[in-house]
């Protein structure tokens, strides 16, 4: 699944596939920045930045609560994006409950959703993809929505009516 997603991303990135207008309308095109950000130099630089932060916190500043074994957490940081994507796309279509019949087997997985910061409201998201708050029922809570509202109130972003 992750390999297939990577291949689809590459097709869009190379402009061999074009997204539907509803996904691209009003979105800025930063082609030069995207090409720069996709280079191996940038990827390695991010990895080195993570390593530098670990070295500074653990070895140089010897911050309270840090220990040498924490270096073993670096691979988790390096793989966090793909692992998060796999959990969201696998769990969000396998486990949980559905508020809507979307004919796509998407589900809301409340048990893991806190760890995924609202991303496991897949069923709600598939029904209402433009809604900034993925929670729909009274017992659902999208932890990133208050942050989105704060960014809107401070005029950093502008929410559009869904």
Automatic annotation (TrEMBL):
One of its GO terms (cellular component) is membrane. It is found in: Membrane. The keyword Plastid does not apply. One of its GO terms (biological process) is fatty acid biosynthetic process. The chain crosses the membrane at residues 40-61, 67-88. GO terms for molecular function: oxidoreductase activity, acting on paired donors, with oxidation of a pair of donors resulting in the reduction of molecular oxygen to two molecules of water. Residues 16-149 form the Fatty acid desaturase domain. Belongs to the fatty acid desaturase type 2 family. This is Fatty acid desaturase. It comes from Algoriphagus antarcticus.
């Amino acid at each position: 699944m992750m390999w297939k997603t990577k291949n689809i991303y590459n097709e869009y990135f190379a402009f061999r596939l074009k997204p539907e207008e509803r996904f691209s309308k009003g979105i800025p095109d930063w082609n030069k920045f995207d090409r720069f950000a996709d280079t191996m130099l940038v990827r390695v630089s991010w990895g080195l930045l993570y390593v530098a932060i670990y070295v500074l916190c653990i070895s140089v500043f010897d911050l309270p609560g840090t220990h040498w074994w924490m270096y073993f957490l670096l691979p988790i940081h390096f793989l966090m994006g793909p692992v998060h994507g796999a959990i969201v796309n696998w769990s969000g279509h396998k486990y949980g409950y559905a508020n809507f019949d979307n004919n796509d087997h998407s589900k809301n997985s409340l048990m893991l959703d806190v760890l995924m910061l609202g991303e496991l409201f897949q069923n709600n998201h598939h029904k209402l993809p433009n809604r900034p708050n993925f929670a729909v029922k009274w017992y659902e809570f999208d932890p990133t929505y208050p942050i989105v509202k704060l960014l809107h109130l401070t005029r950093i972003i502008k929410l559009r009516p869904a």
